[in-house]
Amino acid sequence: MIRYLIVGLLVAGWISETVAIESNGHSGYELAAKKWLKDEFTLSTLTSEQQMKEMRWFTSAAAPFRGMTIRVVSERIDTHTYESNVLTRAFSEITGINVVHELTGEDDVVKKIQTQIQTGVNLYDAYINDSDLIGYHYRSGETVVLSDYMVQEGKDVTLPTLDIDDFIGISFTEGPDGRLYQLPDQQFANLYWYRHDWFSRPDLQAKFKQLYGYELGVPRNWSAYEDIAEFFTVHIKEIDGERVWGHMDYAKTDPSLGWRMSDAWLSMAGAGDKGLPNGYPVDEWGIRVIGCQPVGASVKRGGALDGPAAVYAVTKFTEWLDKYAPPEAKNLNFTEAGTWVAKGNIAQQIFWYTGFTTSLTKPGLSVVNDDGTPKWRMAPSPQGAYWEPGMKLGYQDAGSWTLLKNTPAKRRDAAWLYAQFVVSKTVSLKKTLVGLTPIRASDIESSVMTERAPYLGGLVEFYRSKGRNVWTPTGTNVPDYARLSNYWWQFVSLAVEGKKTVEAAMHEMAEAIDDEMKQIAEDSDLLCKPILNEVEPEDVWLKREGAPKAKRDEQPKGQTSSYEEAIRAWQ
Amino acid sequence: MLGNRDRFKGLVVLLCWGLLAVSVSIHAKPLNVVTFIEKPLIYQKGGEPVGVVVDVVKEIFRQANIEYNLRLMPPKRALFTTAEADGYCVFPIERSQEREALFKWVSPIVISRHGLFSAPGKPISIKTLEDAKPYKLGSYLGSGVGEYLENLGFNVEYATRNELSARKLLKSRVDLWVSDIKSAKYLINSERLPITEPEIVFFTTIRAMACNLNVDPSIVKQLQKTVTQMYRNGSAEKIYGSLN
Known about the structure:
Mean pLDDT of chain A: 93
Domain Solute-binding protein family 3/N-terminal (chain B): 39-240
Oligomer: heterodimer
Mean pLDDT of chain B: 87
Low-confidence stretches of chain A: 1-23
Helix content of chain A: 40-55%
Number of helices of chain A: 23
Structural class of chain A: alpha+beta
Protein name (chain B): ABC transporter substrate-binding protein
Order of helices and strands of chain B: HEEEHEHEHEEHEHEHEHH
Number of strands of chain B: 10
Shape of chain A: globular
InterPro entries (chain B): Solute-binding_3/MltF_N
Radius of gyration of chain B: 18 Å
Largest sheet of chain A: 7 strands, mixed
Structural class of chain B: alpha/beta
Shape of chain B: globular
Strand order of the largest sheet of chain B: 4-1-5-10-6-9-7-8
InterPro entries (chain A): ABC_tp_sb, Bact_solute-bd_prot1, SBP
Distance between the termini of chain A: 53 Å
Pfam families (chain B): SBP_bac_3
Number of strands of chain A: 13
Distance between the termini of chain B: 42 Å
Number of helices of chain B: 9
């Protein structure tokens, strides 16, 4: 019913926007495919003949949908810009289906998918939505279960050469029921980033050893990271006449501040339990589950969101921001900070989104050598004092195609064709080279990527290692990401802005998330809905095995590795 | 890039003298709700705002049992007033990540799709939004979509109201007019403008009621709950249906 609500405001627009397809016979689409293969998709793990066969399938499968204009939305990163500007055009010419691929902030994507679910209004025909929402997708019953769809109603529009097993992040998009809810479109990880050229300088190495008593190298723990941050910001100050900084981050009061925390700080600190892809029973958000039912985020209910490890994480975040980052960092958001290290005055960043790799490899940048190789490297992020072997090592985003059940079937089917086109083997290697957010094992293992590896600072080495399996997205303990993710930036910003102590902000956030989970249970029909634990004294929980963990020595001696040793950890 | 928030604050300083009269205490009632003319969604009759979106908002307040005063302001001023004055809310503005932390939100009030319109006799073929990069685009002050395009590096020129951009298009002062397609169609029909279909409908926005950060959270929560219920039970649909 509700989908008719705003249709009155929209339908005229939809009709008028439907671009008339010129008289384009089957051979016209084939010619278009040939042109795109010759001009754009020149690098592929498929042979030219296999590519052409794949494109012919798209042309044929698209026949019932020609002339339609479908709408999809994704966040704003290089990969999606390529899709929006180039791949929509290719898809349209090869299939006759027009696509408006909108780019917007990640929080907007979350809000839009939430709005379509809540109201039933068909805002978009498909979403590229982080697999962080998997906990909601499998609980809500609102999302098309792709593994069912592909063999049932979507059988005729499912690419025979899709090769699901080739997607490296497919496990992130499966529910606890083993069914596939989303299809990865792009992936990027949070890795340590540093100036390999500076770290290799004998004068800086000697000075660091003199001051701190160990080698300047890739930090293995937060103490070493802190020492290196202090070393560059306080002791070195200038390199080649330029002010340099030992740390970079972002902290603008903005939704992206929340992801900074929920993506990685708590898990790197060691707040959750052991287990892959996420800690169990307490995950990296600090939410405890019994079976699949969330039972609390606060320590008093068995969670770890306001435990010593979480407080340690946010304390270090704010402290390092104040002491060692450039003053601008506090006013930057995810997008603005992403390419900041390309300016050439940052020594290291505890975790940096590899989705910005393309921006750091451009010739002429001060962080790129004359031969095109980078002056920087990426390596495993250092672990906090509460981290233990067996826990996830870092965060990986898996922006993934998501279809909603309340999208009209024909529009959903047409959108599914576009989704498969942009991840097809014909397209994916070129897309990987443009955006450097690989999704297919076949692309990663290709000779093309071997040739590119020296220019990508460790990206290929990471994705060819087992490391790619232990850098994981937010897991299924989070029952409703859209409703809960707001709390992160709203409460952490209070600590960043000095309005509350870290302890107070985290306690209040844990309390608020508990309350919201209780509310979610009361006003939704989710499967495995939250049932909160009764309150117990915090000490009781802190004395038990696993998360939440009691306070421990947070300043062990700093430890570093050589780059070669560090990346061996991925093997 | 210069953040929206910085530009926003700079302009707020310029306008602060105009805001002296709207100083309201945090807990004052009724809530001051402001809106702006955007035909056919919102227009003026007898000095009062009317239209389907106004009807929906009135129904939200009625069902939520919250007192309010409603009045019209120019869009940019309505936005600044709400950002700076306690006890104020404004609708319908585009909700976006850039604006998220500046307000408390009640959404959706209405969903809009936005298009690019070319001038008669001067069609500009737009297959993807990127094709519009070389051109001068006309939007209006306070438009979230205008800000969106500007942040993506587009050349955006602002007028004080949407219809003025349409006129600028006809006088070749901008190459493409950026508008909510429903508003554009209404303007084209009512003012008999020789503008045809949009070259592309490029963006969808959730338009919301934004409230000052000091508005009582329980009021915002109650309004949000009511909006969601209205969408679910069809009462919002019934009102929007009257538009046709």
